[in-house]
User: What shape does this take?
Amino acid sequence: MIDFEEYYLDLAEANANPDAPTNWKQLYASAKKEYGLKSLAPSEWNDLINRMKTDDTTFKAYINTFQLIDFEEYYLDLAEANANPDAPTNWKQLYASAKKEYGLKSLAPSEWNDLINRMKTDDNMFNSYI
Assistant: This one.
């Protein structure tokens, strides 16, 4: 396992003090010491400060409001990775834009709610999501 650190941003704190410097907080210092990781992610993506830059195509957010603009999704075929443990990690892109993939105008909660309602009647949309 590649070791990495993970940080998070308290959005309530950031929104309450928009003129203050960004205060990233360390979630943990070593992934090897953690038992319940939230997800698999390439180690170079765990620098959340770099993710906030709007020219980063993996994760885009407005710097002043921290509102998400869009994100890409990648996955790791664990069967393939386990079958070839000495091979380089082969991350594959699932989609380049969440907004395009799911027909969202924005990443606002209301858009995700509309997506859920569409999935109730559109099996293809539901199956593409899961």
